[in-house]
Amino acid sequence: SAGRVIGIHGRSEGEQHHLPNRGEAIRLHWGFSSGIPLPPAPDLTTLASGNLRWQWQSTPPVPMTLAEQQSFEAAAQPVAVASDPVASDPIAPNNAVDWTNRGNRFYRLEQFDQAIAAFESAIALQPDFYQAWYGMVQVLTTQGRYEEALQICDHILTLQPNFYQAMRDRALLWVLQGNPEQAVADFDQVVQQTPDDYVAWYLRGNLFWKHMGWDEAALGSYDRALTIAPTFAEVWVERGRVLQRLGHGEDAIASLENAIRSEPDLAVGWYWLAMFSQNRDPNAALAAVQQAMTIAPTQVDYLLLYSQLLVQTEQPVSARPVLEQILAIDPHHLAAQELLQTLTGINE
User: Fold this and answer.
1) Which helix (H) or strand (E) holds 17?
2) Please, what is the Cα angle at 318 between 314 and 324, to 5 degrees?
3) pLDDT tens-digit series, residues 300-328
4) What do you get for the CA distance between the two ends of the chain, in Å?
5) Which stretch of DSSP H or E encloses residue 147?
6) This model's pTM is above 0.70
7) Residue 299: its pLDDT value, please?
8) Domains and CATH numbers, the chain
9) Whose CA is closest to 129, among 103, 148, 91?
10) Less packed terminus of the chain by CB within 10 Å, N or C?
11) What's the chain's average pLDDT?
12) Residues 6 or more apart from 148 whose CB is under 8 A from it?
């Protein structure tokens, strides 16, 4: 971060619970933000002497080099945590809310057996506490235990029929199990129940074109998501891909340009912009894929497209080391092997 203090928003999915024996409201986290194990932020004023001179900046720092990124990724890998992540809590879990929060934190630490045990403890104390059942769904889905997760979603919806998160997850589980038709009804019900849930509209659009072949219907879902969240970059990307499928190339490029305006460091946005531009303007496509590689320098798909564009723009000598880099990452990458052999044949 080049020495900068990074600001992170503090909002999360969940709800407040008031427990009589605690005398205070407890926040129960769930879903996309359940139990993120962040330490308390330090008081920055104690870390510097003299007067602080804050400089507010909204531009990203200089991108990390490949070596720096690989070092960071290695350091960020999950490690076994010997101690209980909530052992320092002043109050030991003795109610379903605390046990569920504990399970969520274990889930985020990828200690799935401990997470399930915590959720089971919550359920033992309060069998109808659907939030603990929902935590179980998150763990089981991560473990690939889709059938068990589906059964629990059904149980949650008998306990709380309007808990749309479980219905949304059930739709995704149907897709993961290879039954997208079953997911359609759930997504339709979710967007009827919560019409401002732009994530549900986005997921519904993905379902429609990727699994059902309903391109026009997918566009309708994406457009609805964008009326609610006009800077949701991933929606612009998928919308562009559908437009390209429908033969609306210029509109597809415009959609991708909206994506990268909304989120300039979204590598996949630059990648698809390059893909859709390569026949119209190879040099613009080359510049776009270079942007994607700046953000994700080891992504094989980006490297392959870059090498192909180098060949297309009559720079085959520059393409060779890129192909060799791909094969260093994935020695069995067939497309890279074939293109490298073609270049070798031309040079010979």
Assistant:
1) strand 14-19
2) 130
3) 999 999 999 999 999 999 999 999 999 99
4) 47
5) helix 146-159
6) yes
7) 95
8) 12-36+91-193 (1.25.40.10)
9) 103
10) C
11) 84
12) 140
